[in-house]
């Protein structure tokens, strides 16, 4: 090995320092909110909380989860994430498989039909009118159906399928398997890495969405999602009205928390599942992203 | 192909057809029927009547839109925030990718990367909550500014219109910086290592190699992404603006999509909202076609 020059050393120190600053800037907001959410709400008012709770308590979480809408919101969010991801990934993979079959009779026009929708869409109002016309307002299906397939994901899975040798399908066909069985038993398992990546993207999308609830389900308290509830308590007016609402029900209860601490606890509740899932799937999504990036 | 052969082929592919058929129906209903709704932009749409029985008004709504000062405000805000995002947000992931590439300690590099991707996976609702907390009068930014005696009283960041564009731009950078490096890091791995060896022999230092080999190596990717984002300046979305705005910052926060939302759905002027949406789509398509043409011309690389 050659010796490091002074210039290289300065550069190296500067670089490491910069990366550490970046890490701190990225993590600080999360750690701070976590600390506040675990701190006594009336102690928090005094200020000065950084990234460690001063008076540890779980009261903010207990109070948040006690609000009648929240358990429903948890249930709906989990349901929509699980069902939406399962339906979305399966549909996307099926479309990708059929489009990828060189002998499929309508291959070109079908692929074209999907690709066009990447560039033109009806827009906010026509989409809204359609959902209303279909009777999907205040209906759980509005979370699953309209966003079922994204053409971008179809392209990512399809380009992965291109790398699977066609001999595998041919030998299965000789053994008498039909096209669906070939897809289900051979192609889909071979696509596990890319399917995992797309699943993560779709799941995060479902978990994080709030706008469809805002537009289509805000009149049905049993169908609202966690992100939407957080959005509601984030706007100050809504938070205080919610607090008022609950204090009218039971004056002793809301005295335990402040809207501020409540918001912080809710922020953490909404973020937590992602923090748990994403380090495990990281190696998949980087690979998947790279495929997608190169192909499109 | 004669018809009996065609039937034979259709029959042989019946499973494939069955597999795709529901999704073609889905595509038509959820993606093509809304395009049909564009007709509303040229009608005086009244709820309750079928779309073919509505009164035709030609370009009335477009004319009205172009006479509305709020529309220009929304247009201005969209363009300014897009350009700020481009000017400040575009170079940073490139710089970060270059610097990350120079970190030879693999576990440190991986840790930095893992942490930098994290914000990409949380929702804008959560980011808005974090931003509100950090920028609140008792938040960390105000504390630091007071400690170093730059200010005597806390700044109400969220309620000051002049800070809004910066807040949107920087929270977007905070959220997506790490994630946007992935594509550049992928491009860096495909650079021929012999180039680095040759440069070492020529006596180039680390910084020199980064500027003279790595950066030119990822230039095609940089240019394609830059052109793509120029094609997307009008598609800024509305989520961050919707979630970060307050009553005091509305004037600088309203972007095209929020304008459509407010006037189209909020006040029930469906035809007007659709007209604004059609306008946006047309501008977006024109920009895309232009970007594509420009990319083909300058880099020989076609995106569409």
From TrEMBL, chain A:
<feature type="transmembrane region" description="Helical">
    <location>
        <begin position="140"/>
        <end position="161"/>
    </location>
</feature>
<keyword id="KW-1003">Cell membrane</keyword>
<keyword id="KW-0812">Transmembrane</keyword>
<dbReference type="Pfam" id="PF00528">
    <property type="entry name" value="BPD_transp_1"/>
</dbReference>
<dbReference type="InterPro" id="IPR000515">
    <property type="entry name" value="MetI-like"/>
</dbReference>
<comment type="similarity">
    <text>Belongs to the binding-protein-dependent transport system permease family.</text>
</comment>
<feature type="transmembrane region" description="Helical">
    <location>
        <begin position="182"/>
        <end position="204"/>
    </location>
</feature>
<feature type="transmembrane region" description="Helical">
    <location>
        <begin position="262"/>
        <end position="281"/>
    </location>
</feature>
<feature type="transmembrane region" description="Helical">
    <location>
        <begin position="110"/>
        <end position="128"/>
    </location>
</feature>
<keyword id="KW-0472">Membrane</keyword>
<feature type="transmembrane region" description="Helical">
    <location>
        <begin position="9"/>
        <end position="31"/>
    </location>
</feature>
<keyword id="KW-0813">Transport</keyword>
<feature type="domain" description="ABC transmembrane type-1">
    <location>
        <begin position="74"/>
        <end position="281"/>
    </location>
</feature>
<keyword id="KW-1133">Transmembrane helix</keyword>
<dbReference type="InterPro" id="IPR035906">
    <property type="entry name" value="MetI-like_sf"/>
</dbReference>
<protein>
    <submittedName>
        <fullName>Sugar ABC transporter permease</fullName>
    </submittedName>
</protein>
<feature type="transmembrane region" description="Helical">
    <location>
        <begin position="70"/>
        <end position="98"/>
    </location>
</feature>
From TrEMBL, chain B:
<protein>
    <submittedName>
        <fullName>Sugar ABC transporter permease</fullName>
    </submittedName>
</protein>
<feature type="transmembrane region" description="Helical">
    <location>
        <begin position="213"/>
        <end position="234"/>
    </location>
</feature>
<dbReference type="InterPro" id="IPR000515">
    <property type="entry name" value="MetI-like"/>
</dbReference>
<dbReference type="InterPro" id="IPR035906">
    <property type="entry name" value="MetI-like_sf"/>
</dbReference>
<keyword id="KW-0812">Transmembrane</keyword>
<feature type="transmembrane region" description="Helical">
    <location>
        <begin position="15"/>
        <end position="39"/>
    </location>
</feature>
<feature type="domain" description="ABC transmembrane type-1">
    <location>
        <begin position="75"/>
        <end position="291"/>
    </location>
</feature>
<keyword id="KW-1133">Transmembrane helix</keyword>
<keyword id="KW-0472">Membrane</keyword>
<dbReference type="Pfam" id="PF00528">
    <property type="entry name" value="BPD_transp_1"/>
</dbReference>
<feature type="transmembrane region" description="Helical">
    <location>
        <begin position="79"/>
        <end position="100"/>
    </location>
</feature>
<comment type="similarity">
    <text>Belongs to the binding-protein-dependent transport system permease family.</text>
</comment>
<feature type="transmembrane region" description="Helical">
    <location>
        <begin position="270"/>
        <end position="294"/>
    </location>
</feature>
<keyword id="KW-0813">Transport</keyword>
């Amino acid at each position: 090995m050659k010796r490091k020059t002074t210039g290289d050393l300065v550069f190296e120190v500067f670089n490491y320092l910069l990366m550490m600053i970046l890490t701190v800037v990225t993590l600080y907001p999360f750690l701070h909110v976590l600390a506040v959410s675990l701190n006594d709400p009336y102690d928090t008012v005094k200020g000065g909380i950084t990234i460690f709770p001063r008076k540890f308590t779980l009261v903010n979480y207990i109070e948040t989860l006690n609000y009648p809408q929240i358990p429903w919101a948890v249930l709906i969010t989990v349901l929509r994430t699980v069902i939406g991801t399962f339906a979305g990934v399966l549909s996307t993979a099926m479309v990708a498989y059929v489009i990828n079959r060189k002998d499929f009779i309508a291959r070109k026009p079908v692929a074209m039909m999907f690709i066009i929708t990447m560039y033109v869409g009806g827009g906010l109002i026509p989409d809204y009118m359609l959902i209303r016309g279909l009777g999907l307002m205040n209906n759980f299906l509005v979370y699953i159906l309209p966003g079922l397939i994204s053409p971008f994901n179809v392209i990512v899975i399809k380009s992965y399928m291109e790398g699977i040798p066609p001999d595998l399908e041919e030998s299965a066909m000789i053994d008498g398997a039909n096209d669906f069985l070939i897809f289900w038993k051979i192609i889909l398992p071979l696509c596990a890495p890319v399917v995992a990546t797309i699943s993560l993207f779709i799941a995060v999308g479902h978990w994080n969405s709030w706008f469809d609830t805002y537009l289509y389900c805000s009149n049905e308290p049993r169908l609202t999602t966690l992100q939407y509830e957080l959005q509601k308590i984030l706007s100050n007016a809504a938070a205080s009205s919610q607090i008022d609402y609950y204090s009218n029900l039971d004056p002793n209860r809301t005295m335990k928390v402040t809207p501020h601490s409540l918001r912080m606890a809710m922020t953490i509740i909404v973020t937590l599942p992602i923090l748990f899932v994403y380090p495990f799937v990281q190696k998949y999504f980087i690979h998947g992203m790279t495929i997608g990036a190169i192909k499109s | 192909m004669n018809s009996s052969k065609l039937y034979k082929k259709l029959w042989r592919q019946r499973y494939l057809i069955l597999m795709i058929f529901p999704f073609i129906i889905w595509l038509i209903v959820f993606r093509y029927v809304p395009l049909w709704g564009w007709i509303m932009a040229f009608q005086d749409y009244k709820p309750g009547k079928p779309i073919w029985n509505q009164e035709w008004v030609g370009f009335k709504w477009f004319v009205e839109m172009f006479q509305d000062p709020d529309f220009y405000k929304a247009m201005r805000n969209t363009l300014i925030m897009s350009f700020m995002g481009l000017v400040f947000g575009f170079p940073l992931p490139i710089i970060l990718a270059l610097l990350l590439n120079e970190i030879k300690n693999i576990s440190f590099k991986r840790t930095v990367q893992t942490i930098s991707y994290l914000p990409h996976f949380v929702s804008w609702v959560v980011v808005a909550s974090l931003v509100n907390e950090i920028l609140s009068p008792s938040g960390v930014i105000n504390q630091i500014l007071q400690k170093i005696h730059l200010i005597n009283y806390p700044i109400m960041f969220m309620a000051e219109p002049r800070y809004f564009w910066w807040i949107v731009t920087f929270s977007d950078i905070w959220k997506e910086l790490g994630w946007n490096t992935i594509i550049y890091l992928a491009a860096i791995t495909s650079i021929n290592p012999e180039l680095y060896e040759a440069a070492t022999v020529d006596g180039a230092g680390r910084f020199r190699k980064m500027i003279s080999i790595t950066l030119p190596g990822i230039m095609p990717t940089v240019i394609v992404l830059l052109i793509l984002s120029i094609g997307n300046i009008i598609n800024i979305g509305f989520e961050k603006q919707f979630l970060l705005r307050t009553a005091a910052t509305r004037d600088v926060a309203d972007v095209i999509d929020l304008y459509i939302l407010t006037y189209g759905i909020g006040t029930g002027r469906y035809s007007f909202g659709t007209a604004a949406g059609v306008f946006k789509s047309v501008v977006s398509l024109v920009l895309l076609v232009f970007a594509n043409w420009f990319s083909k011309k300058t880099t020989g690389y076609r995106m569409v």
